Amino acid sequence: MIEKAKELGFDTEILTALYDELKENPSNQEIIKLLTFHAEALMQEKSINESHKKLADSLAKEMKAIGPINETFFEDYETFNRQTYRINHIAKTLNGRFRTEIPEIDLSRENFAGIQEVKKALGYSALIDSYNKLYESAEKLPSDSDEDYWEFYKNLFLFMADFYFLEEKVAYRAAFTTTGKIAATLGLAKTQAVLGPKGYGLLLSEIHWMLRGEINEGWAGLLEALRSESLV
């Protein structure tokens, strides 16, 4: 399962953490259900239709135009404004195609200043890592592999959720956020059209992992998010 996760660009630390939990408590039904779900979801064949591939090729081209980022992305307002404008265009495209509800990033100087404060308090290296992981998957496209397209879409929606959570921190609302609430707010259930139901569950798993240091919902929070979508 670990090797398959690597092939799909899925965070293997999630599986390692689940295995460690199971070693400590072999009868933990919550962890057993989560491991079973991940095994089934990762091994399921990934299939992306031609129209979604064409869209991915177009979006990947835009990501490659932005290039990889580092902390200077958030230190210079003009860079932030120019590159985030492109990210907002990608979000609009996703909303138009999949009927998701990804909000546009606020390009105002006031919001940029708020992000600076979040950086001082919490940092945002995770967001930079999330974006660069997306950029790496964009570089694989066009591709003959459906799995490459699946990985790109998964990383794209994950990055959008990551940026949304950063803005929630700027607005001091992050403490009231859960995996399920983020998914509902962004309309991420609609991503099943391209990721598939179990693929959407893997997206929820990575969002939950992304939030683990910010909110205290534990594995039960992920299980609840999966149950609410009838995925387990």
Tell me the layout of helices and strands.
Layout: H1 2-8, H2 12-24, H3 29-43, H4 50-66, H5 77-98, H6 109-121, H7 125-138, H8 146-170, H9 179-186, H10 192-195, H11 197-211, H12 218-228
Helix pairs in contact: 2-3, 3-11, 3-12, 4-5, 4-7, 4-8, 6-8, 7-8, 8-11, 11-12
Radius of gyration: 17 Å
Instruction: Tally the beta strands.
Output: 0
Q: Assign a percent range to the helix content.
A: over 70%
Number of helices: 12
Structural class: mainly alpha
Oligomerization category of the chains in this entry: single chain
- Give the N-terminus to C-terminus distance in angstroms: 18 Å
The averaged pLDDT comes out at: 89
Explain the overall architecture.
It is a single chain. The chain is mainly α. It has one domain (2-228). Helices cover 71% and strands 0% of the residues. It is built from twelve helices and no strands. It has helices at residues 2-8, 12-24, 29-43, 50-66, 77-98, 109-121, 125-138, 146-170, 179-186, 192-195, 197-211, 218-228. Helix 2 packs antiparallel against helix 3. The protein is globular. The two termini are 18 Å apart. The mean pLDDT is 89.
